Amino acid sequence: MTQYAGIWNLQQQAQALTASNWPAPVPPSASVLVVAGGGTGGLITSIRGAGGGAGGLIYISSFPISSGTYTVTVGSGGASSSGTAVANGSNSVVSGNGRTLTANGGGSGGYNDYTNNGAVGGSGGGQWYPGFAGAAANQPSTTNDGISTYASSGFGNAGGTSGNVPPYASGGGGAGAAGGSYNGGSGPVGGVGKAYSISGSSVYYAGGGGGDNYPPTYPPSHYAGGLGGGGTGYNDSYNTLSNGTANTGGGGGSGGSGGSGVVIISSNIAAASTTGSPTITTSGGNTIYTFTASGTITF
Predict the structure, then answer these.
(1) For residue 254, what are the β-bridge partners?
(2) What CA–CA distance (Å, rounded) separates 199 from 4?
(3) Rounded to an integer, what is the distance from CA 222 to the centroid of its chain?
(4) Which stretch of 139-143, 210-214, 230-234, 247-251 has the lowest confidence by average pLDDT?
(5) Which one of 179, 191, 237, 253 has the largest count of C-beta atoms within 10 Å of its C-beta?
(6) What separation in angstroms does the CA of 240 have from each of 41, 47, 115, 297?
(7) What is this structure's pTM?
(8) Taking CA 67 as the corner, what is the angle to CA 64 and CA 69, rounded to the nearest 5 degrees?
């Protein structure tokens, strides 16, 4: 009897440990960064052009994931054709299991005299002469994925205000700040982006493009793009184009193309498979999937 009582006591202790002392399973989750393509810098006509807006940005530190496949779309930057075309950037999207996150493409920069035509986008494009307010941003600050709502997760800002005296143009908006205005302390610089460490180190994304000046000056003026890949606004007689940096969502500077977007997923569980050849790294116990081209990820 004593022998059986001892076995019974051991069983009770094991059950108590299982019920109350073992750590609960960690639910699968991920940090997700979605950055759209940046807008083209404004058309150059006798060196008249404003900075392109950065792609809209979404960052969610705890995004619920479940078994299944998520489709990843990485938006392209707005294309420039030797400074003779402007276009908004394309959206970046993560979608699967009833949830969809959409970052809106950046707005193109304004161009030509007397025309209020900087474009609305994730961040808005800068404007050109004379004195127009920068184009608005359309990336919502609160993100709804179709199931859950995430406050303060979306980022985009307006372009700067143009002027009727030199340097005329304004910078494109960035994820972290509006574009610089013609009469601002730094001139028509691009709006700064936002920095995240989701890749394992701190990196800026979604900086606005810099605007340019008119008439040309010698040496040329350079108005910086915003941290996060924004292209520089150049002021010279050669119509120098400066593209936004690839895979940052940076806006194009003074006629340059916008930078393509990026999607980064950092998860506490490894994916079963991927397509689209994301770069796969590890940091802090998480597996990090960096998509610079469209693909899928299956958990």
Answers:
(1) none
(2) 56
(3) 24
(4) 210-214
(5) 179
(6) 12, 9, 22, 40
(7) 0.90
(8) 95
